[in-house]
């Protein structure tokens, strides 16, 4: 374990890394939790090793308070940016997730510290993954560009180009700042109708990332979760339907 | 493209510039959008080249969130201070606009970074343009002084001297800080009765700037916009009038 | 005019100063405006020269917005800390006032910049003057101590020792920080029943300062203001009384 | 008295210290005031000497305003972090308390300054003491771990391992940051059902600390306070009971 001070932040390195043609994939809490679910699932499914953490004043509890988590085993844990590495056959991918987005006033400084770290390891390409609110029911993958060099592979992937709007938080900020450093950079968004955790949209993002970077992620677990949620929703529908019919028994429809 | 770090802000220079007897004209969002409309119109009408941008923590989305814009073509764009250059026959003018005013806590540091840049290019004179709320219906141009050296030309212009009050935001702050560096500095304000985007007041400011700095700005487009708005307002009035008359048909006036 | 950068603040010096056994008297807006009225009155009455100003991010418009004042003559004026000098027969006094208190997050850094300046000029003693809310109707002068060296002269003055409580804002902070630098330091408070501008309490503070430092302040003007306010209050009372009597004519008292 | 500037904070040292195998015990205001009562009681009971203070922008009045206290004797007192030393037979303990928790944005920088100071004195072990909200009526001591080296002695103490959750504020943050510096670190929490000052929980914490570090703290005074509070509560209960019975005399129960 190595510790470095970075302008009020602390970088904890568990393993010295050089990335071959490195990619950074960042998935933090946000719309439909799409980005965080996607990255957490890949990390867990590929059993990736945690190689670094960043802690500091702008990375707080989700309540907005400064503080720490206590694990079920009674250990203190600072909210942090956590980095996991995947060594692919051709290039290495650094996955980044956290319990929280940085505080508003800290978004820029935290993003710059992440890029400092990533570039120092040999990073070349930055991807922000998150959700995007849409009206259409189907979950699809949209992309937005910070640099032109990635258009072809995103089009080849079958992702749709995003229309105009805004992306709040770190998902768009990190790639935008990365492109200013000459890195390839873009955003991948899973579309979602609700702000509830959306595992279907996350699965679409996982699939897209897998195609882009040759990941071999087993989707069984997330499909089970999706099936379970679908089942529950259908059961809730059936109950509501039955209730309606019972009401129908008691009150003729013109009565309402 | 050249990048420089400035106390947490990033200056992106697309073109190295030396300004001959340089003027800086800043028009940001504010009362009646007068300043921003004026500068945007001049930049677009004279087809000026973007020469620099400043991004950083205090320049956020208008919602107060950190984040990025996505253009209709799917490109990420950081909210930023954007600089455009006009090479006049005698002196060069740097126009500055943005989608937003800096956050309150960042107004001073952003203004100081702008002045650092401007002075390093050979700048001499700073103008803040914006709207000012008045009760009179006519749009007029008012000025307020940060340095005495500019009185004569502003009086010659036919602008009115502002009475007492306050100017919030960057419009007054930038010239005030500029005068402390020994630059000539003042504010030009287009008077507006409403806080709605006021194109008439903006046109007055454009005309004043054109006279002051020998700009040759074609006003046709802004006049079309003004005419269109006037037409719509008149139509709305006609509809309201007709509605009143119809009411009159149904209910005699003493009935109300 | 000389300009110096101090950690994001700017010190503007109009005149180089060395203070003989220097005293700093700070009176900013606060309870009953007592401190500000007292210092403004002394500065105006003794016609003191402005020798320095401090401007910067924590010194904002009273609205909490960043911005500038426009004088009735159309000049931009940054809200600022303003320093005026009085050359006494034995020691020199620097009076400090402003349109505002610094923002909460800036109180410490602004106070430290003030002390840096004051100590560099040869300052020895710091006085915060302000109001204190009491229930008693009479305006009296209370003192609170940051250093023990000044007790005797404050007791000799006839001021009362303050009881326990808190002093919010710069009035107590500046002397407390000053005493940590080894300066003599205390607070003088004029007691007030209301939070309205209290000229009577301010006059008491002026009188106390005059005795302490041998100032020769003509109190005629402030006594006129006090008399005028008293007159208006009495007239308001008379009107209310008359109104009551008239009501008495119309409605017998048992009717209400 | 020695003063040192630490990134905007001021360290006031009344006595130069080297700690033998030093322990830092921090108890600040928080849930049930448990941590602050415990540390204040030990400091007062063992009559410990104040050896240092930290003041600065993030350490404000509890109201969230910047300002100072005035003691009953009329002395200004800055809110501060106060350090007291206990020289044990084998190791030295530094007790830390304050009137307040640092402002949210200052928690990290204040904690880092405390650790800088503590490490420079030869510190090895950091304990945060505070309250934890539980549903069970009995006051018990829970612990949470920042480093594994302390498990055995905490288990030997008979304290219970905390379950999962969060600890807001400095109580968990300080040990968590300490462990990153290689210090032994943990949290001791007295469980409380209410957010009112809980002297019973504080006594449990005092007892635990006494066992851990061989302190000889006389508990008589805190037991008197506890007995007094119990008495008052019982009296309040009796009054409520009597009132109920009287109501019973006037209104038969079915009437209500």
Describe the structure.
- 4 copies of one chain form a homotetramer.
- Chain A is α/β, with parallel strands linked by helices.
- Helices cover 35% and strands 29% of the residues of chain A.
- The first copy, chain A, contains 6 helices and 13 strands.
- In chain A, the strands form 2 sheets. The first copy, chain A, has a 10-stranded mixed beta sheet with strand order 1-2-4-7-8-3-9-13-10-11, with helices on both faces. In chain A, strands 5-6 form a two-stranded antiparallel sheet.
- In chain A, β1 and β2 form a beta hairpin.
- Chain A starts with a strand and ends in a 6-residue tail after the last helix.
- Chains A and B meet through α2, β10, β12, α4 and β13 of A and β5 and β6 of B.
- β12 of chain A pairs antiparallel with β5 of chain B.
